[in-house]
Amino acid sequence: MDHVIYTINNKGDKFEISKTILDKISCNGSIAGKQILSDFTEDKTVVEFHFQRHSTCTSNILEYIRGDLLHIPTDVCPKKFRQEMEFWGIPENEIATCCFTKYQSFLDDEKTLWVLERDQNERHARKERVYVMSKGKGWKAMQAKIWQVMEYPSTSVMAKIFMVFSNLMVMLSLFILVASTDQMFHESLTDDQWNEYLNENDREKYGRKGAGSYSETMADKLPDLKSRMEYLIYLELITIVYFTIEIICKMVFFPLPWKDFLNFFIVVDAISLIVMYVDVIANEVDEREKYEESFVEAVKSLQIIRVMRLFRLLKHVSSFRILILRSVQV
């Protein structure tokens, strides 16, 4: 029966195919192939096979089966086209090159949405677990209540106040970091600071004479150094103490299993705090570090990632979360 012409009838649209192409469809293990085999089982003389599939997708797929390129219709969602390909047993790598970029973009978007949905479900589940725990008694209940204040601003007035205060501390930290690079927030070294900077050999080298200050007696000899205004140093110490207490409290009052503790914002907090301590330790080990440019200054600039803390305000906004995920994927 090789000379027999078979017909695929899809909602009234008919496509003539040869016995070779029909065998190709019926033997690929697809749903369409199984339906054709089933029709053959019922009637050995059948030459027309009826389907109720998407018209445009089916037309493009059957044209591909008959030897044309496999194109995705411009007015069809790639997900729908993939369903039709699966029905007819067509692998994804058969899509024409001109359409594959569009299809790959769809796959990326689908993966992103899947991750967003999974993340949202996990966050909601964790929030519900913490809420249930907060209604109990004992240490776990106390942990849950304090964690709600620190992580879920919508749960109480206290949580909202904590969120505002925490963000103000973040902005203060960023202000100090930026101000420390601006000469407007620097001043000439005091005598105590010069004594701290100059070692005994330097003092003999510059040989200060007279009762005046260093700047008055040796202005033409001393290196051109300035230090941050003193109030910036004290403000920085306040932020270090605050962020240290905050991260310790998060570790102590986290009520869920530790595998759920780490997230993007916790990592940002930890890195920023470590950088601040590196700067403090470096200044204590070598007091000249306070007044000279060094590698520590470059490391200190990593504190700028703390600006990501402000994005916590947007972490429930889908468009922001999509932006972050796509950025990571790229």
Automatic annotation (TrEMBL):
It comes from the Eukaryota. The chain crosses the membrane at residues 157-179, 231-255, 261-282. GO terms for biological process: action potential; protein homooligomerization. One of its GO terms (cellular component) is voltage-gated potassium channel complex. It is a multi-pass membrane protein. Residues 8-98 form the Potassium channel tetramerisation-type BTB domain. Its main location: membrane. The keyword Membrane applies. One of its GO terms (molecular function) is voltage-gated potassium channel activity. SUPFAM superfamilies: POZ domain (SSF54695), Voltage-gated potassium channels (SSF81324). Keywords: Ion channel, Ion transport, Membrane, Potassium, Potassium channel, Potassium transport, Transmembrane, Transmembrane helix, Transport, Voltage-gated channel. InterPro entries: Ion_trans_dom (IPR005821), K_chnl_volt-dep_Kv3 (IPR003974), SKP1/BTB/POZ_sf (IPR011333), T1-type_BTB (IPR003131), VG_K_chnl (IPR028325), Volt_channel_dom_sf (IPR027359). The keyword Ion transport applies. It is found in: Membrane. Coiled coil: none annotated. Residues 161-324 form the Ion transport domain. This is KCNC1. It comes from Mytilus coruscus (Sea mussel).
